[in-house]
Write a structure and sequence with these properties.
- It is a single chain.
- The protein has two domains: 34 residues; 90 residues, 3-Layer(aba) Sandwich (Glutaredoxin), CATH 3.40.30.10.
- The chain is 47% helix and 16% strand.
- A five-stranded mixed β-sheet has the order 1-5-4-2-3, with helices on both faces.
């Protein structure tokens, strides 16, 4: 009888853990492999011009912001950086763009929500900002 209670308890714990992991962990894991959030639009209202083609909204504590800036610097890309914690006008722009995560990167007519090196680099190449 002890053995049946032991296996019933193990089964119950396994079912509960499976339910919890399915409810909470699975969406998190799916988020790691999601497609880049890219939006096409006109971003002149936040200062994107033929001269200033790249703008990045950041915060000091964001590792992905640092990686994005490192990639832009590596390719000698001229960009405008807005730290929204230090720039109230930049915070307003970030909010107008429905910013919720970091970095928020605008390259000409494309807005990237997050740092996705491949698509960002491809847009820089397609815009003749860097060479392949």
């Amino acid at each position: 009888m002890k053995s049946l209670t032991k296996y019933t308890t193990i089964f119950f714990i396994t079912v509960c853990l499976g339910a919890l992991l399915g409810q909470y962990a699975l969406p998190t894991v799916k988020g790691l492999f999601k497609e880049p959030a890219i939006e096409v639009g006109n971003y002149q209202h936040v200062g994107i011009t033929d001269i200033d083609k790249v703008k990045i909204y950041t915060v000091d504590w964001c590792d992905f912001c640092a990686k994005a800036k490192e990639m832009l610097d590596k390719h000698h890309v001229k960009y405008i950086e807005i730290d929204i914690e230090k720039n109230p006008q930049g915070l307003k722009e970030f909010e107008q763009l429905s910013g919720v995560g970091f970095p928020l990167i605008i390259i000409e007519n494309m807005l990237f929500r997050g740092f996705f090196e491949g698509p960002i680099k491809q847009k820089l190449i397609d815009s003749n900002i860097i060479t392949a």
